[in-house]
Amino acid sequence: xxxxxxxxxxxxxxxxxxxxxxxxxxxxxxxxxxxxxxxxxxxxxxxxxxxxxxxxxxxxxxxxxxxxxxxxxxxxxxxxxxxxxxxxxxxxxxxxxxxxxxxxxxxxxxxxxxxxxxxxxxxxxxxxxxxxxxxxxxxxxxxxxxxxxxxxxxxxxxxxxxxxxxxxxxxxxxxxxxxxxxxxxxxxxxxxxxxxxxxxxxxxxxxxxxxxxxxxxxxxxxxxxxxxxxxxxxxxxxxxxxxxxxxxxxxxxxxxxxxxxxxxxxxxxxxxxxxxxxxxxxxxxxxxxxxxxxxxxxxxxxxxxxxxxxxxx
Length: 313
Hints:
Shape: flat
Structural class: alpha/beta
Strand order of the largest sheet: 10-9-11-1-12
Number of strands: 12
Oligomer: single chain
Protein backbone atom coordinates (compact mmCIF):
# COMPACT_ATOMS: atom_id res chain seq x y z
CA UNK A 1 0.00 0.00 0.00
CA UNK A 2 1.48 3.30 -1.09
CA UNK A 3 0.86 6.43 0.96
CA UNK A 4 -0.31 9.53 -0.96
CA UNK A 5 0.16 12.82 0.87
CA UNK A 6 -2.04 15.48 -0.70
CA UNK A 7 -0.60 18.91 0.05
CA UNK A 8 -2.89 21.77 0.95
CA UNK A 9 -2.77 24.62 -0.04
CA UNK A 10 -2.29 23.69 -3.69
CA UNK A 11 -3.71 24.64 -7.08
CA UNK A 12 -5.55 27.82 -8.04
CA UNK A 13 -4.64 31.05 -6.26
CA UNK A 14 -6.92 34.07 -5.98
CA UNK A 15 -5.36 35.78 -9.03
CA UNK A 16 -5.85 32.73 -11.25
CA UNK A 17 -9.43 32.28 -10.02
CA UNK A 18 -10.15 35.91 -10.84
CA UNK A 19 -8.54 35.71 -14.31
CA UNK A 20 -10.40 32.54 -15.29
CA UNK A 21 -13.69 33.88 -13.95
CA UNK A 22 -13.08 37.08 -15.96
CA UNK A 23 -12.85 35.16 -19.25
CA UNK A 24 -15.88 33.04 -18.24
CA UNK A 25 -17.92 36.20 -17.60
CA UNK A 26 -16.81 37.84 -20.86
CA UNK A 27 -17.84 34.72 -22.78
CA UNK A 28 -21.18 34.63 -20.95
CA UNK A 29 -21.92 38.32 -21.55
CA UNK A 30 -20.49 38.88 -25.04
CA UNK A 31 -20.08 35.42 -26.56
CA UNK A 32 -17.20 34.50 -28.88
CA UNK A 33 -15.00 35.61 -30.44
CA UNK A 34 -13.05 36.77 -27.38
CA UNK A 35 -9.36 37.65 -27.67
CA UNK A 36 -6.90 37.16 -24.81
CA UNK A 37 -3.46 38.76 -24.88
CA UNK A 38 -1.04 35.95 -23.90
CA UNK A 39 -2.24 32.80 -22.17
CA UNK A 40 -4.74 33.86 -19.51
CA UNK A 41 -2.79 31.67 -17.06
CA UNK A 42 0.10 29.31 -17.76
CA UNK A 43 -1.81 26.05 -17.91
CA UNK A 44 -2.33 23.99 -21.06
CA UNK A 45 -5.66 22.49 -19.95
CA UNK A 46 -7.16 25.86 -19.03
CA UNK A 47 -6.01 27.45 -22.29
CA UNK A 48 -7.20 24.53 -24.46
CA UNK A 49 -10.56 24.58 -22.66
CA UNK A 50 -11.06 28.25 -23.48
CA UNK A 51 -9.92 27.72 -27.09
CA UNK A 52 -12.69 25.14 -27.43
CA UNK A 53 -15.20 27.79 -26.32
CA UNK A 54 -14.19 30.41 -28.88
CA UNK A 55 -11.29 32.22 -27.22
CA UNK A 56 -8.34 33.25 -29.41
CA UNK A 57 -5.01 33.75 -27.62
CA UNK A 58 -2.65 36.25 -29.25
CA UNK A 59 0.96 37.24 -28.55
CA UNK A 60 0.73 40.49 -30.49
CA UNK A 61 -2.01 43.07 -29.90
CA UNK A 62 -1.97 43.74 -33.68
CA UNK A 63 -3.62 40.31 -34.09
CA UNK A 64 -6.79 41.61 -32.40
CA UNK A 65 -9.21 43.14 -34.95
CA UNK A 66 -9.92 46.87 -34.57
CA UNK A 67 -12.75 47.51 -32.13
CA UNK A 68 -12.78 43.95 -30.74
CA UNK A 69 -12.70 42.94 -27.07
CA UNK A 70 -9.38 41.89 -25.55
CA UNK A 71 -8.68 40.42 -22.11
CA UNK A 72 -5.23 40.98 -20.61
CA UNK A 73 -3.76 37.93 -18.88
CA UNK A 74 -3.08 37.54 -15.16
CA UNK A 75 0.63 38.24 -15.74
CA UNK A 76 0.18 41.91 -16.61
CA UNK A 77 1.14 43.98 -19.64
CA UNK A 78 3.31 46.94 -20.53
CA UNK A 79 2.02 50.50 -21.15
CA UNK A 80 3.12 50.10 -24.79
CA UNK A 81 0.56 47.31 -25.26
CA UNK A 82 -2.17 49.44 -23.66
CA UNK A 83 -1.30 52.33 -25.99
CA UNK A 84 -1.56 50.08 -29.06
CA UNK A 85 -4.90 48.74 -27.80
CA UNK A 86 -6.24 52.29 -27.50
CA UNK A 87 -5.04 53.07 -31.05
CA UNK A 88 -7.03 50.07 -32.27
CA UNK A 89 -10.09 51.14 -30.22
CA UNK A 90 -10.17 47.80 -28.43
CA UNK A 91 -12.55 47.12 -25.57
CA UNK A 92 -10.05 46.35 -22.78
CA UNK A 93 -10.73 43.94 -19.94
CA UNK A 94 -7.79 43.75 -17.55
CA UNK A 95 -7.40 40.45 -15.66
CA UNK A 96 -3.95 41.31 -14.28
CA UNK A 97 -3.45 39.81 -10.84
CA UNK A 98 -3.56 42.61 -8.21
CA UNK A 99 -0.28 41.31 -6.76
CA UNK A 100 1.39 41.85 -10.16
CA UNK A 101 -0.19 45.32 -10.38
CA UNK A 102 1.37 46.06 -6.96
CA UNK A 103 4.84 45.40 -8.44
CA UNK A 104 4.06 47.68 -11.42
CA UNK A 105 3.05 50.44 -8.97
CA UNK A 106 6.26 49.97 -6.98
CA UNK A 107 8.29 50.36 -10.18
CA UNK A 108 6.49 53.58 -11.07
CA UNK A 109 7.08 54.98 -7.56
CA UNK A 110 10.80 54.15 -7.65
CA UNK A 111 11.17 55.67 -11.13
CA UNK A 112 9.37 58.82 -9.98
CA UNK A 113 11.82 59.09 -7.07
CA UNK A 114 14.80 58.75 -9.43
CA UNK A 115 15.92 55.19 -8.66
CA UNK A 116 17.41 52.63 -11.03
CA UNK A 117 15.47 49.40 -10.48
CA UNK A 118 16.64 45.81 -10.41
CA UNK A 119 13.89 43.36 -11.35
CA UNK A 120 14.64 39.94 -9.87
CA UNK A 121 13.03 37.38 -12.15
CA UNK A 122 13.04 35.49 -15.44
CA UNK A 123 13.53 38.00 -18.24
CA UNK A 124 11.49 36.06 -20.82
CA UNK A 125 8.47 35.51 -18.54
CA UNK A 126 5.29 37.44 -19.44
CA UNK A 127 5.25 39.09 -16.01
CA UNK A 128 8.82 40.33 -16.38
CA UNK A 129 8.17 41.70 -19.88
CA UNK A 130 5.08 43.59 -18.69
CA UNK A 131 6.79 45.03 -15.61
CA UNK A 132 9.98 46.05 -17.40
CA UNK A 133 7.78 47.78 -19.98
CA UNK A 134 6.75 50.31 -17.31
CA UNK A 135 10.24 51.84 -17.40
CA UNK A 136 12.53 50.00 -19.83
CA UNK A 137 15.35 52.55 -19.49
CA UNK A 138 15.37 52.33 -15.70
CA UNK A 139 15.14 48.58 -15.09
CA UNK A 140 17.82 45.88 -15.14
CA UNK A 141 16.65 42.24 -14.99
CA UNK A 142 18.72 39.94 -12.77
CA UNK A 143 18.06 36.19 -12.91
CA UNK A 144 20.85 34.68 -10.79
CA UNK A 145 23.18 35.46 -7.87
CA UNK A 146 26.04 35.40 -10.43
CA UNK A 147 24.38 38.19 -12.42
CA UNK A 148 23.89 40.13 -9.20
CA UNK A 149 27.61 39.74 -8.38
CA UNK A 150 28.63 40.99 -11.83
CA UNK A 151 26.23 43.95 -11.87
CA UNK A 152 27.81 47.31 -12.65
CA UNK A 153 25.77 50.44 -11.90
CA UNK A 154 26.50 54.15 -12.25
CA UNK A 155 25.05 55.17 -8.88
CA UNK A 156 25.17 52.48 -6.16
CA UNK A 157 23.22 54.84 -3.86
CA UNK A 158 20.29 55.15 -6.27
CA UNK A 159 19.17 51.52 -6.49
CA UNK A 160 15.93 49.69 -5.65
CA UNK A 161 14.72 46.16 -6.33
CA UNK A 162 11.40 44.41 -6.95
CA UNK A 163 10.74 40.73 -7.61
CA UNK A 164 8.62 38.62 -9.92
CA UNK A 165 5.66 37.28 -7.94
CA UNK A 166 6.15 33.61 -8.91
CA UNK A 167 9.79 33.10 -7.92
CA UNK A 168 11.21 30.54 -5.55
CA UNK A 169 11.49 32.31 -2.20
CA UNK A 170 14.93 30.77 -1.58
CA UNK A 171 16.23 31.59 -5.08
CA UNK A 172 15.05 35.19 -4.74
CA UNK A 173 16.64 35.44 -1.29
CA UNK A 174 20.03 34.33 -2.62
CA UNK A 175 19.94 37.16 -5.17
CA UNK A 176 18.66 39.67 -2.60
CA UNK A 177 21.48 38.70 -0.22
CA UNK A 178 24.05 39.49 -2.91
CA UNK A 179 22.41 42.82 -3.76
CA UNK A 180 22.16 43.91 -0.13
CA UNK A 181 25.78 42.96 0.52
CA UNK A 182 27.04 44.81 -2.56
CA UNK A 183 24.64 47.77 -2.27
CA UNK A 184 23.84 48.25 1.44
CA UNK A 185 21.57 51.24 0.78
CA UNK A 186 19.40 49.50 -1.84
CA UNK A 187 15.70 50.25 -1.43
CA UNK A 188 13.03 47.55 -1.56
CA UNK A 189 9.26 47.27 -1.02
CA UNK A 190 7.95 47.23 2.54
CA UNK A 191 6.03 44.05 1.75
CA UNK A 192 7.52 41.09 -0.09
CA UNK A 193 6.55 40.92 -3.79
CA UNK A 194 6.50 37.13 -3.99
CA UNK A 195 2.86 36.06 -4.03
CA UNK A 196 1.34 34.56 -0.87
CA UNK A 197 0.18 31.51 -2.85
CA UNK A 198 3.61 30.88 -4.36
CA UNK A 199 5.14 31.06 -0.88
CA UNK A 200 2.50 28.81 0.71
CA UNK A 201 2.83 26.10 -1.96
CA UNK A 202 6.62 26.15 -1.73
CA UNK A 203 6.49 25.93 2.08
CA UNK A 204 4.16 22.92 1.84
CA UNK A 205 6.66 21.09 -0.39
CA UNK A 206 9.53 21.95 1.96
CA UNK A 207 7.64 20.78 5.06
CA UNK A 208 6.08 17.61 3.63
CA UNK A 209 8.74 16.28 1.25
CA UNK A 210 10.88 14.75 4.06
CA UNK A 211 7.99 12.29 4.63
CA UNK A 212 7.87 10.97 1.04
CA UNK A 213 10.06 9.25 -1.57
CA UNK A 214 8.70 11.11 -4.61
CA UNK A 215 6.98 14.45 -5.35
CA UNK A 216 4.51 14.97 -8.21
CA UNK A 217 3.57 18.51 -9.22
CA UNK A 218 0.59 19.14 -11.50
CA UNK A 219 1.33 22.12 -13.73
CA UNK A 220 2.45 23.16 -17.20
CA UNK A 221 6.08 23.48 -18.26
CA UNK A 222 5.78 27.24 -18.85
CA UNK A 223 4.36 27.83 -15.35
CA UNK A 224 7.09 29.51 -13.31
CA UNK A 225 5.49 28.85 -9.93
CA UNK A 226 4.89 25.15 -10.78
CA UNK A 227 8.52 24.68 -11.82
CA UNK A 228 9.64 26.26 -8.53
CA UNK A 229 7.73 23.54 -6.61
CA UNK A 230 9.79 20.90 -8.41
CA UNK A 231 12.97 22.84 -7.61
CA UNK A 232 12.00 23.00 -3.94
CA UNK A 233 11.49 19.21 -3.77
CA UNK A 234 14.82 18.57 -5.53
CA UNK A 235 16.52 20.95 -3.08
CA UNK A 236 15.12 18.73 -0.33
CA UNK A 237 16.78 15.72 -1.99
CA UNK A 238 13.64 14.14 -3.42
CA UNK A 239 12.95 13.07 -7.02
CA UNK A 240 10.22 15.32 -8.41
CA UNK A 241 8.32 15.60 -11.70
CA UNK A 242 6.23 18.36 -13.26
CA UNK A 243 3.32 16.84 -15.22
CA UNK A 244 0.36 18.38 -17.02
CA UNK A 245 -1.89 15.49 -16.01
CA UNK A 246 -1.92 11.83 -15.01
CA UNK A 247 -1.34 10.67 -18.61
CA UNK A 248 2.32 11.71 -18.25
CA UNK A 249 3.02 9.37 -15.32
CA UNK A 250 5.87 6.89 -15.78
CA UNK A 251 5.34 3.69 -13.72
CA UNK A 252 9.13 3.38 -13.30
CA UNK A 253 9.11 6.47 -11.08
CA UNK A 254 7.37 4.41 -8.41
CA UNK A 255 9.80 1.48 -8.19
CA UNK A 256 10.58 0.96 -4.51
CA UNK A 257 8.61 4.05 -3.47
CA UNK A 258 6.47 3.83 -0.33
CA UNK A 259 5.10 7.37 -0.17
CA UNK A 260 4.38 10.08 -2.74
CA UNK A 261 3.38 13.71 -2.33
CA UNK A 262 0.96 15.35 -4.76
CA UNK A 263 0.65 19.11 -5.15
CA UNK A 264 -0.28 21.57 -7.91
CA UNK A 265 0.94 24.94 -9.13
CA UNK A 266 -1.19 28.05 -8.70
CA UNK A 267 -2.56 27.82 -12.26
CA UNK A 268 -3.45 24.09 -12.24
CA UNK A 269 -7.14 23.03 -12.00
CA UNK A 270 -8.18 20.78 -9.11
CA UNK A 271 -9.87 18.20 -11.37
CA UNK A 272 -6.40 17.29 -12.72
CA UNK A 273 -5.25 16.60 -9.14
CA UNK A 274 -8.31 14.38 -8.57
CA UNK A 275 -7.61 12.41 -11.75
CA UNK A 276 -3.98 11.91 -10.71
CA UNK A 277 -4.93 10.72 -7.23
CA UNK A 278 -7.54 8.33 -8.68
CA UNK A 279 -4.89 6.88 -11.00
CA UNK A 280 -2.43 6.42 -8.12
CA UNK A 281 -5.10 4.66 -6.08
CA UNK A 282 -6.04 2.43 -9.00
CA UNK A 283 -2.49 1.51 -10.04
CA UNK A 284 -0.73 1.41 -6.68
CA UNK A 285 -3.49 0.98 -4.12
CA UNK A 286 -2.62 4.37 -2.67
CA UNK A 287 -4.01 5.52 0.67
CA UNK A 288 -4.70 9.27 0.74
CA UNK A 289 -3.79 11.60 3.56
CA UNK A 290 -4.61 15.30 3.11
CA UNK A 291 -2.20 17.55 4.98
CA UNK A 292 -3.39 21.14 5.41
CA UNK A 293 -0.64 23.49 6.54
CA UNK A 294 -2.78 26.60 6.37
CA UNK A 295 -6.12 27.81 5.02
CA UNK A 296 -6.11 30.46 2.30
CA UNK A 297 -8.91 33.01 2.39
CA UNK A 298 -7.68 35.56 -0.18
CA UNK A 299 -10.04 36.47 -3.01
CA UNK A 300 -10.01 39.24 -5.61
CA UNK A 301 -12.96 41.07 -7.11
CA UNK A 302 -13.60 40.78 -10.82
CA UNK A 303 -12.24 43.79 -12.73
CA UNK A 304 -14.66 46.70 -13.01
CA UNK A 305 -14.33 46.44 -16.80
CA UNK A 306 -16.03 43.01 -16.63
CA UNK A 307 -18.70 44.03 -14.18
CA UNK A 308 -19.68 46.95 -16.44
CA UNK A 309 -19.93 44.91 -19.68
CA UNK A 310 -23.39 45.03 -21.17
CA UNK A 311 -24.99 41.69 -21.95
CA UNK A 312 -25.50 41.24 -25.68
CA UNK A 313 -28.75 39.86 -27.09
